[in-house]
Amino acid sequence: MTSRIALLKAVDALLGRLAVPLATLCSPRAQRSEAIGSILLIRPGGIGDAVLLIPAIQAIRKKFPSADITVLAERRNAAAFQLCSEVNRVLLYDRISDFLAVLRTTYDVVIDTEQLHRLSAVVARLTRAPVSIGYGTNQRSRLFTHSIPYSHDTYEIDSFLGMLEPLGIGLHGVPERFLAVPDNALRTAASLLESLAGRPFAALFPGASIPERRWGADRFRQVAERLAAFGIPAVVVGGREDREQGEEITAGGMGLDLAGRTSLSETAAVLQESTLLVSGDSGILHLAVGLGKPTVSLFGPGRGKKWAPRGHHIVINKELPCSPCTTFGTTPPCWNSVQCMRDIAVDEVFNAVMMLLAAESALPSACCKKEWIVVQNNIKR
Fold first, then answer.
1. Given pLDDT bands bounded at 50, 70 and 90, which one contains residue 18?
2. Are strands 202-205 and 146-148 parallel, antiparallel or unpaired?
3. Which pLDDT score, from 0 to 100, does residue 312 have?
4. Residue 8 maps to which CATH number?
């Protein structure tokens, strides 16, 4: 997966710059007067971007209830759109047949939601749609009929919603929950969680797309141990790449390890049944947010203003002078041994979890008689 992502970025860096001036020679079709009937949204990238785009898709559906909505995604994030019933079809950016199908199709509106890379903007231009919308972060701005500014200080959901202004869709409140889990995924999750006998549990996601965002399986293990002392099971979620961490966290019966055992929609179903999620800056974090679940999120290299959850969540961010260092999804090598993540203490995370469990009335009655210290320093709501 990592090599595929690196390859796509390399292709964009090489071909994207060359393709922009050529694509400007392709003029959009003449503007039509009839109602908008077909819309293409281009969303390469990871799971988090895909999930946070869904409120904008739902706003489009509300404005244009009969429109045909297609999403051009990547293999790594396409499954996120299974949680959005407003999408009519999902095509793959990195499947040649799907890519060519997009270029052969007529669209009334194309919205390129990629923030920086150029090839998606070239694709938007080549469709020759009469209305094309995208972020004007570099030369890509020349390829759209409507170029939209992009800020690293704007929450990503709001950034995506801001792209809809040319369609007459203004910013509006986002519901606490905006994802819908398929019934078959819920049935699978119920089977996997059967051993918990309906007890409230905390979901843990130790993974991340880059090593610098990982807190460490040993620390997640300590959180699981402390939760077990209070009768709260821990359930580890994640992909195949997270199996080793899942085994380390749950070894000796310390919790239930589901890492690598569920699809994305089944992971969402597990999160829906959980009381809360503990995670680093990740797509799984945004999945829980979209399901309306409280979260404890651990931020270091990532931009909290852009990606940290809003509302009934606890964000732990040490805000060192050198962080955030991630820009447009790229994190440079750390000269400081990722101190921004190392400085997040187990006590800090555990107490944040206990605060949310208490707020959700999910603590066993025996816990009410136990003493535990709530550490509030550096914990931000």
1. low
2. unpaired
3. 83
4. 3.40.50.2000
